[in-house]
């Protein structure tokens, strides 16, 4: 009984029942050593504003909404830095070129992919792109990573966070979101919510079986019940992405 009261008090102090650990949303800190291909995009002040994935020695896959519109201009891609405040960790690599999918209009309409070419090799191991539809089957264990908000109202995370989220079926995701397009997107999350990517995680990786299956794109709020995270479906854009990886620069 007394323990129950203590737990209740701690929960109230901790910000209520929904507040799990202050982490992505519902995830935990992870080591960049285990995920060397996770990078972030920094503006001219060095502030992180989106995520990305190193997919070739000088190429980073991110979201088109991170490279266009109201998004800050990319100044550097930061590689190997788990703690955003530790400038001694990893390297901030200058950008040579940005390609944004030509069909991109807004995240909820699809084509939310962009390829950033670095001025020099980042020196980290790239991640392979999705190569199989099987990776998109309902229930596939996927892992999302980023430095974004740890809840809808929270600040972005100082540290790299990761969260495991199962792939949601196209039918179920279409029920959650009328604008869902199975040929352009994939959803991941729990029906009850609690685990998700959030603002600032955009552009970052959704990984399954060691392959990049999604690019963090959009969703209604973060970690809400029946509102899974929506990711750009990497396999659907393989041809245009591969063409960019082959491009010199
Ligand atoms: C965003 O605004 C954002 N819950 C990223 C991911 C999700 C929602 C919004 C998914 O960058």
UniProtKB/TrEMBL annotation:
SMART domains: Tryp_SPc. CDD domains: Tryp_SPc (cd00190). It comes from Saccharothrix tamanrassetensis. InterPro entries: Peptidase_S1, Peptidase_S1_PA, Peptidase_S1_PA_chymotrypsin, Peptidase_S1A, Trypsin_dom, TRYPSIN_HIS, TRYPSIN_SER. Residues 24-246 form the Peptidase S1 domain. It comes from the Bacteria. One of its GO terms (biological process) is proteolysis. This is Secreted trypsin-like serine protease. Keywords: Disulfide bond, Hydrolase, Protease, Serine protease, Signal. It holds the Pfam family Trypsin. PROSITE patterns: TRYPSIN_DOM, TRYPSIN_HIS, TRYPSIN_SER. Residues 1-19 form the signal peptide. One of its GO terms (molecular function) is serine-type endopeptidase activity. Belongs to the peptidase S1 family.
